[in-house]
Amino acid sequence: MKAGSNLLNAVSAIALSAGIVMTGAGVATLGSVSVAEAAVVSRIDVRGNSRVDASTVRGNLTITPGTNFNNNDIDDSVKRLFSTGLFSDVRISVSGSTLIVEVDENQIVNQVVFNGNKKLKDADLKRVVQSRQLGAFNDMVLQADVQAIRDAYSAIGRSDATVNTRLVPIDGGRVNIAFEINEGDRTKIAAINFVGNQAFGDGRLADVITTKRSGILSFLTRKDVYDEDKLRADEELLRRFYYNRGYADFRVISSFAELDEASNEYVVTITVEEGERYVFGDVSIESTVPGIDSESLRGLIETRSGAVYSAEDVEDTILAIADRVATQGYPFAQITPRGDRDFNNRTISVVYLVDEGTRAYVERIEIRGNTRTRDYVIRREFDLSEGDAFNQVLVRRAKKRLEALQFFSSVDISTQPGSQPDRVILVVEVEDQPTGEFGVGGGFSNTDGFTATLDITEKNFLGRGQFIRASVGGGEDTREYSLSFTEPYFLGYRLAAGFDVFRKTDASYTGFREEDQGVNLRVGAPLTEDLYFSTAFRYSQSKYTGVTLGSIISAPEANSVNRTTNRGGHDVASLSYTLSYSTLDDRQLPREGISAYLTQEYAGFGSDSEYIKTTASANYFHMLSESADMIGRVSAGAGHVTSVGGGNLRVFDHLFVGQQIIRGFENRGIGPRVFSSAGTNVGPAGGTTYFNGTAEISAPMPMLSRDLGLRFNLFADAATLYGNDIAAADFACPPVAPTSCVGPQTLVGSGMEWRASLGAGITWASPFGPLRVYYAEPVVKENFDQVKKFGFGASTRF
Known about the structure:
Layout: H1 5-10, H2 12-18, E1 20-23, E2 26-29, E3 43-47, H3 54-59, H4 71-83, E4 87-95, E5 98-105, E6 108-115, H5 122-128, H6 139-154, E7 162-170, E8 174-182, E9 188-195, H7 202-208, H8 218-221, H9 228-243, E10 251-260, E11 265-273, E12 279-287, H10 311-327, E13 334-342, E14 347-355, E15 361-368, H11 375-379, H12 392-405, E16 408-417, E17 423-432, E18 436-445, E19 449-461, E20 466-474, E21 478-487, E22 496-506, E23 513-526, E24 531-545, H13 555-559, E25 567-582, E26 593-603, E27 611-625, E28 630-643, E29 664-665, E30 673-675, E31 681-684, E32 689-700, E33 710-722, E34 746-748, E35 754-766, E36 769-780, E37 787-788, E38 790-797
Parallel strand pairs: 3-5, 6-8, 9-11, 12-14, 15-17
Antiparallel strand pairs: 1-2, 4-5, 7-8, 10-11, 13-14, 16-17, 18-19, 18-38, 19-20, 20-21, 21-22, 22-23, 23-24, 24-25, 25-26, 26-27, 27-28, 28-32, 29-37, 30-31, 30-34, 32-33, 33-35, 35-36, 36-38
């Protein structure tokens, strides 16, 4: 464009009075037309076009033959023609009764190429530029593309990258665009310094922010890329960190980065003012809404007098009160916390004010930034939709839910004015992140030798929010295969429905081989934000081959063995429910909170097994030292199974305990076992009751940078498995037994003997995913227990 609409506007009055219009680089004469007069033409003549059809030009004019027009119509016509992006210049003039429109066409982009790029592929760069093949060439767009490419390189730590353009005209009014790129060296972050912090050390605060110091693996994580926007987001993370730990006066004084051009490294400095630490004083609720009793809401308060001040607890209280008030018919009610600080006693008294609030409605919800996740996956996390009453509390809840999905690296929800004063537009901006994981795990035991597992997990399958996992594993004598799928919003409701298909073969038993396969159908729903309920129906079939002397199979199974083929089997149909509870602050590395579950399972429904099985577990996490980032965990669990219908339990209906509960022992490694008459350890018989407990401490590895993500763990595990409900007759030779069966078998270890182990491990939050390795030494055990001292596991995201 050689001249723009600003020029047209500036000379508009002069042009009208003089009878001329200046557009683009040309002058259009209107003869003797004055300000008060209007012109009429009988035809429109388009000139200078070669690729653009004349009808396209006429279609973008506001002037038509036979109708009056003035200078404003010409001005509008020029603007519309320029806005098509097809023309570099437009000139309009009048000759007699003919309107002459002369255009200079923009060149057509024949090809866009990138030269010199290695760190960013052509496909990556094509996504950030606007110049497109067969599109109209525009110099302003070209300059914007140069800046977009530089921004893309800055995002990967190459802020000194340079971009030049080369235009190569070819026949037919076409042009090739070449972006000549010098990627430069990657900038690094040499140090992140905190100034003014006393309550928390630099290492602890460095864990809070997303900007990281450069290390040996930074080329994989890319967390050491300096970005001013990311630094502003880090400021907010620091504020929330301090606000949730009593420092209500905390503020970031400044944050900036200095680049050493010689080394191409940044030094980031964040200056903070922590202020005093506060605890909650008096906490109360006041309501101005008729029909809302303040006392009835007191049970919803999460903030307790004397507890350390926490902004998150205040937010949780606001959410709970807003929910209750909305169910009582006040969707516009606004809950506002009013704080009263006592600087001498360092307390903050909080009054939650319940007011009517301003009536406003959601006009629409705009989703931006999601390149992979479908819009409806994001929308369904909102408890409000277009046309509903706007409620800021529900918006904050939706934000927490979206963050909890772990589909996005960032979630931001803002509001814009709608088309009317009582209308609000919600703008949801997200950034997708990898949600797939490839996992490998394994261990070594003195019976199974080396064992390994491989699994592939995708938590956002095809961007639909669905969960899918495929797993395969085994050792010398075992093989396991499974496939799981979960739809989190079954039939459009907040119901997570799914299935698991599994198959397992186990030849570790003395004298026979077990094959187990089946399906598990499940559905679950949240009861509250912290409490979840699920139920499942499971059906499985087990088959045994090679049944010989010493096989520990209960009488019904042994009697059903076909002595010609040495085969037998049974089936199990069961219905179960689970209640799970979690207040963990972080699923990946919890530092505070509780997680617990209770499961009960009934087996029967005409199958070979009839029992009721109950298991429960609870974990408590607590920060032992903020400055050292030392986390403590204690856990406890229990289980019990009992037969129903008057019979005894089958062997495999019993409970089994191993490395999942007490490290240092192999799977099914402790509890009652069966020995042959010759003293051979036949295998585990299982128990009817178990108890277990764990105490564990974890902290960053000393003498190493915390940015490496390495933590050490010290733990102590204890467990007992006792009781057995196998009928005495089951230990004798079956009525139709192999001729080699020559004596009864013996059950040992059914008493309540405790086992214990001590150990240490290392957890690495690697760029490929979390990796865990441990060594556990049994310090209390029975001589017939099966030991497994070493274990490891790893997973990687994709």
